[in-house]
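Sorry, any thoughts here?
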Amino acid sequence: MEKELTKLFEIFIASSLINNFVFTRFLGLCIFFGVTKKVETAVGMSITFTAVMMISAAMSWVVFNFVMVPLDLTFLKIVVFIGVIAAFVQSSDTIMRKVSPGLYYKLGVYLALISTNCIILAVPLINAGEHYTFLEGITLGLGSGLGFALALVIMASIREKLEIADVPVPFRGLPIAFVTTGLIALAFTGFAGIITS
């Protein structure tokens, strides 16, 4: 039991900090730069992304292990995972439109991009490639979601401050955001020294 909990903790820390999808794997940058103009939008997208990652990881794990592996259809995992994720995101899109229309309109086009986002797809692919158990897969989804949330909130906080800062004209907007992201990514490389064996 202790060994299993240790492995779950390692997966969680590795996916949220050491192998952060934004700062070390450089995935999901389109949404990262798109929704980090305001902290409120970044928090809303963080919650949505984390929920979608965990639920799609669970659904994809079930489909992969109970349908695709027995039928020897593992070569179709990318297509099947995109279908599973798209179906779930479409339903969450409809629910969000009814439950929180304000947040739905703030997220705008980025909500539709969740279904084909590389971060969302990466979680089931890593689960299948590493042969994680169901609980390990959900832990990877949770850790990855919280790591992405951390990246969004950090960047949104900084970008709100940069709006009132005296930034040279050629660096205003996206250029200073790219520079800031590079510096944060450099700081996150410090977590790579943490040994997870």
